[in-house]
Write a structure and sequence with these properties.
The chain has 98 residues and is an alpha+beta fold. It has one helix and five strands. A five-stranded antiparallel β-sheet has the order 1-2-3-4-5, covered by helices on one side. It is found in: Cytoplasm.
């Protein structure tokens, strides 16, 4: 993967789910609601001064959300941060940079 370029979409892993779970409360606070279903489906990564994770998350019924989560460099010792999200997505919507 090139620095600055996003990877191809890949099926979510247990690590991807853990990342999504860690920022779930941040998303719930921004949306003003809780999500009973919160399952990572697929993801892309982008190397910057840390790593951006673009994660497609199933939030129940036929609803999906796209998350952009930033993981800082290890020596910075900072928590994961929800840097953005897109709601009203479908299972077939492509993960893109936002």
């Amino acid at each position: 993967m090139l620095c600055g370029g996003a990877s191809k979409a890949r099926p979510a892993t247990s690590e991807t789910q853990q990342i999504a779970d860690e920022v779930k409360s941040q998303l719930e606070e921004k949306e003003g609601k809780t999500f009973d279903v919160f399952t990572a489906v697929e993801f892309k990564t982008q190397l910057v001064a840390g790593t951006n994770y673009f994660i497609k998350v199933h939030v129940g019924n036929d609803e999906f959300m796209h998350l952009r989560v930033f993981r800082s460099l290890p020596h910075e010792n900072k928590p994961l941060s929800l840097h953005g999200y897109q709601s009203s997505k479908t299972k077939h919507d492509e993960l893109t940079y936002f």
